[in-house]
Amino acid sequence: MNEFLHQLASGLALGGVYAIMALALVMIYQATQLVNFAQGEMAMFSTYFAWKLMDSGWPYWRAFAATALISFVGGIVIERLVVRPFAKAPVLASVIVFIGLALIFNALAGWLYGYSVTSFDTPFSGRPWLGNVYMSAHESGAVAVSLCVLALVYAFFRFTPLGLAMRAAAQNPVSSRLVGIRVGWMLAMGWGLAAAIGSIAGMMAAPIVYLDPNMMAGILIYAFAGAVLGGIDNPFGAAFGGFAVGVLENLVGAYVVGAEVKLSVALAIIVAVLVWRPSGLFGRRLVARV
Amino acid sequence: MLEVRGLKAYYGSAQALFGLDFAVEKGGVTALLGANGAGKTTTLRALSGLIRREGDIRLQGRPIGALSAEDIARLGVAHVPDGRGTFTDLTVEENLRLGAYVRSDRSGVRRDFDRVVGYFPRLAERRPQQAGTLSGGEQQMLAISRALLMRPNLLMLDEPSFGLAPLVVAEIFRILGAINRDEGVSMLIVEQNASLALDLADSALLIETGRVALSGRSNAIRSDDAVRRAYLGY
Is the ipTM of this structure higher than 0.95? Predict the structure, then answer.
């Protein structure tokens, strides 16, 4: 029983990472109906940036904040320079652009920092009150950070005028322009936010999965599985899906198939959801009138 | 308020307007009449910068022909589009708040909220409701209210009567008249229902295949034989 609870708890820790990654995916999906396949590599690159800052002596939380901020700006720049020229291009062109971005970030990280696996600091290790029988201090800290991010993002979209304008721009761009909202900038802001959230996911994941240029590949697939499970047009569903996939992954990995093949669990979830409930648990079924 | 000379507009490479000349007087109401496909909706879209256009467009003397839709809206041109442009997933309250998105005068916005809700009391009851669940008439009222919260100089309405019951249409036009009288908002109104539009408007123009076929005071247009036969039906 203890072992089971332990597996459950550490599933929650990575689940939190999947949840906020899923949220980043949903944010861009809602505005563009596209999945940003480069989200994971962008997050990995941000995490390296944080590592570099800490390596040069910055305290953890300062590096954390600077990384989130730089990632926000970086996300905006990527949208303006790389994504925006393809705004009216066919879906396939955008998909290729995203894959290209992912490869570029992966190669760039390898070139700049090497492919060796590196450990990454956690701010929570020195705090025994966070650790308990079921979770390490970092795991509980990561869950707390994930929940904070979810709450902050919710509050931003629900209560601020800018958040409202971003929601409006995503669902009705023409009407948004007619009330003076700069829709193009709202999209860029969405990319910035998604990149910042991704960077936090990366920094929370790195102490668990270790830092290397491929660290986010599996995480992105789990996050995508979570988003599909919860409903890719519903931020809360996607976040819930992320936690659920984290727990499932761990339990199935521990008791059913073994750790080596547990990544296929994510793919099995994606396939199963797409077959039985394409809009996800909390998603809306879109009916197009022809 | 608005002066338009030689307005041309395009959908892709297809030209839809072939040089329109007209004006909307300050505090006046101009009706834009014409058959389906004549270019009425296109004219409004061209004026608010949603499609590619050429020509001299001046708002209060200021050229706006090269500005983006966002900037034209920020200058006080409120366009209530065909289909009402409701943010269906947002609440009525949020739809209204979006109308005031670019304004920073909080107390003025609060006053305008009350004023607008005064025109359309039904919206007050429905503030927390999802806007997509409103009836067609209520959505039209919401669209007009959203536009009014922009504190517009020029209000452009695209077929406010479309798909609505006659009683609701009468109510909406009565309120539009009141808004024009009380607040001096200039209006450019596209309508299929020519008789209704001419009642509200002081001047009108008739568009046929992207060109102005006839323009003048409402009374003159109303008594024009061709207009009467084709658009008023008597």
Answer: no
Nearest to A180 among B70, B81, B85 (CB): B70
φ, ψ at A218 (rounded to 5°): -65, -40
pTM of the model: 0.88
Interface test with B, best of A160, A167, A178, A284 (most B CBs within 10 A): A178
Q: State whether B101 and A161 contact (CB < 8 Å).
A: yes
Work out how many domains chain A is built from and give that number: 1
3-class SS letters over A161-230: HHHHHHHHHHHCHHHHHHCCCCHHHHHHHHHHHHHHHHHHHHHHHHHHHCECCCHHHHHHHHHHHHHHHH
Please, which pLDDT band fits residue A290 given cuts at 50, 70 and 90? very low
Q: Which residue of B has its CA nearest to A185?
A: B70
Give the model's confidence band at B175: pLDDT under 50 very low, under 70 low, under 90 confident, else very high: very high
Q: Give the tens place of pLDDT for each residue, A33-70.
A: 899 999 999 999 999 999 999 999 999 999 999 999 99
Asked, for residue A237, whether it belongs to a domain, the answer is no
Q: Chain A contacts of B150, Cβ < 8 Å?
A: 179-180
A198: domain range? 2-215
Tell me whether residue A207 is in a domain: yes
Extract the tokens encoding A83. Answer: 């994504």
Helical H segments across A79-135, by residue range: 91-113
Residue A102 domain-assigned (yes or no): yes
Quick: pLDDT tens for A223-277. 999 999 998 888 899 999 999 999 988 888 888 877 777 778 878 888 888 888 8
**Nearest beta carbon to residue B87 from set A161, A175, A183:** A175
Please indicate, yes or no, if residue A236 is contained in any of the structural domains: no
Question: What domains are there in chain B, each with its CATH number?
Answer: 2-87+153-232 (3.40.50.300)
| B139 CB within 8 Å of a chain A CB | no
